[in-house]
Specification:
globular; four-stranded antiparallel β-sheet; about 240 residues; about 25% strand; six-stranded mixed β-sheet; alpha/beta
Length: about 240
């Protein structure tokens, strides 16, 4: 069952066109990876989907509804959560306060408390640090917190922009395992931009590759194991 689709003739910032004739889809419960060289337009694509970048033409459809150019807050209410690049957390607040902010659209204090308890059960490292200042967390723990905060609203879709950025190889593996665990436990559809291509191919269901703002590949991870196919994406 297709949950999210987008047809984007053009998208960008002012007169700067970043995406050209990009069409993607993601099914319920899928993990879809967006790969490609730096500057290919991957992050811009996520921002179009969440409503941070508006498009003059084209469409974004979520769960059968047209959400083209709908605000990020409206999309959050509908079940789309976005985790931007860079482990962004409120460093002056505690872990618990960060999570409570993530649940700002939930109905009442009791709902926030119940959801917080459920979310931290997935992240035992955070459960032990609920009252610790988020600025004192390690890079890997901050990434966990950013992901946990996005889960507070019970999303149907998670948009993740380079979740492995700045992490050690060991923590990269742990981050991907956590994402796969969330996907399997809750059936959440995941679209993630990622530079750690070899790693993400091990657990993604489908892959889109962008180059200079255009799609140059759409298929399964198995189809990208061929070094020539990878070379055409990153080197040609």
């Amino acid at each position: 069952m297709t949950l999210l689709t987008a047809e984007i003739p053009e998208a960008g910032y002012g007169k700067k066109i970043v995406l050209k004739n990009v069409g993607i889809s993601a099914g319920k419960g899928e993990i879809v990876a967006l790969i490609g060289p730096n500057g290919a337009g991957k992050s811009t694509l996520l921002k179009v989907l969440v409503g941070m970048v508006r498009i003059a033409q084209g469409s974004v459809n979520f769960g059968g509804a047209d959400i083209t150019n709908r605000s990020p807050e409206e999309n959050a209410r509908a079940g789309i959560s976005f985790v931007p690049q860079g482990n962004r957390v409120f460093t002056e607040l505690s872990v618990k306060e960060n999570l409570e902010i993530g649940g700002y659209l939930l109905d009442g204090r009791a709902s926030v408390t119940a959801r917080l308890s459920e979310v931290v059960s997935v992240f035992p490292d955070l459960r032990e640090r609920l009252h610790q200042n988020a600025g004192q967390l390690s890079g890997g723990e901050k990434q966990q917190l950013a992901l946990a905060r996005a889960l507070m609203l019970k999303p149907r879709v998670l948009l993740l922009d380079e979740p492995s950025l700045g992490l050690s190889p060991k923590l990269v593996t742990k981050a991907f395992e956590t994402i796969r665990g969330v996907n399997e436990k809750y059936g959440i559809t995941v679209l993630l931009v990622e530079q750690k291509v070899r790693e993400v191919l091990h657990f993604g269901h489908r892959v889109y590759a962008l180059r200079m703002g255009q799609l140059v590949f759409s298929g399964t991870p198995a189809e990208l194991q061929d070094s020539e196919a990878m070379r055409k994406i990153f080197l040609v």
